[in-house]
Design a protein that fits this description.
With 106 residues, the chain is of the alpha+beta class. The chain has a four-stranded antiparallel sheet. A hairpin with a 4-residue loop joins strand 3 and strand 4. The chain starts with 8 loop residues before the first strand and ends with a helix.
Amino acid sequence: LMSQSGKHTILFIQRGNVSTRTYYDFPTVSQCMAFIIDLFEKELIRINPGIQKLSYQVSDIYNYIDSLNEFNMLILDQTAGVYVPYGRAMIKEKLLQHLNHVSRNM
């Protein structure tokens, strides 16, 4: 993950029908991963408005990702000058690496 932390990243999300397609771009993979966690936490708050403290497992984030119609990202490979596509499985792997890195540095 750290070798890709400085690479431009584009995240594509589709929550429902085609009109809900959205993309977000980030200067780094790490910022994209932090955004995904933030998006998930905001969804938890939305569906549990009375909750005082958020508590969840990595598997809950994975289930959230799986619940979306589309969830893909492109990461710039600066050497080749192309964007490399990543699907859900690879995004989950990068998310886990990100969370492990963040927790080690707390």
